[in-house]
Amino acid sequence: MVQEGLPRETANMLFIFHKNVGVLVLLVVLARLAYRFFNPAPPLPAGINPLQKRISHVSHALLYVLLIAMPILGYTRVKAGGFPIEYLDAMGIPALVPRSEALADAAQTAHFVGGLLLAALIAAHVGAALLHGIILRDGVFRRMWFGTGAH
Ligand code: HEM
Ligand code: HEM
Hints:
Layout: H1 8-38, H2 50-80, H3 86-90, H4 101-136
Helix pairs in contact: 1-2, 2-4
Residues 36, 41, 56, 60, 63-64, 67, 122, 125-126, 129, 140-141, 143-144 line the site of one protoporphyrin IX containing FE (HEM).
């Protein structure tokens, strides 16, 4: 999307996809958190030490924080910069942030840094999931599936 030399139509298509699906990600994550609030996760398998538990909780919380912050920052970057978000505009939803180049620039920088952090966190998260699923086989991996929390 942001690569130099990409044909204009391809970049535009990717921008439109990124912006509009990005806003949907926010709604899906909020719905997920609401569900999670009323449906707590099953207990972790015994054998997981307190430090590991702490690291896993902190990293999941950070994943949620970034999955909420990224769409808000992207939205702010685009709307404060005076650009469209096509389907929100088509529904007549007004910009929720003021038009400001300074705000757009700050949001752009934070969106860029947040993207790097999220990528690093996802890599660590998937690595940990695979470690549990393939090497330790301690039941943590199965917790992703319906009602199969290991005890
Ligand atoms: C979970 C949601 C999102 C994630 C993970 C995400 C991630 C990213 C990443 C990794 C980049 C590349 C940064 C770079 O190399 O410059 C980027 C760029 C961009 N994103 Fe997002 N994004 C999300 C949501 C959004 C939303 C909702 C919008 C706007 C409505 C948006 C607008 C943009 C724009 C305009 C760029 C181009 C860079 C710029 O000019 O600011 N993003 N995003
Ligand atoms: C190959 C891909 C992935 C695998 C195998 C995987 C695996 C898992 C597993 C096993 C858990 C449960 C851990 C536990 O209960 O302690 C989990 C939780 C979680 N994963 Fe992933 N994950 C993957 C990708 C992702 C990605 C890409 C994201 C974010 C963009 C993500 C976000 C989360 C979050 C937020 C939780 C905590 C859920 C909660 O307790 O509410 N995962 N994942």
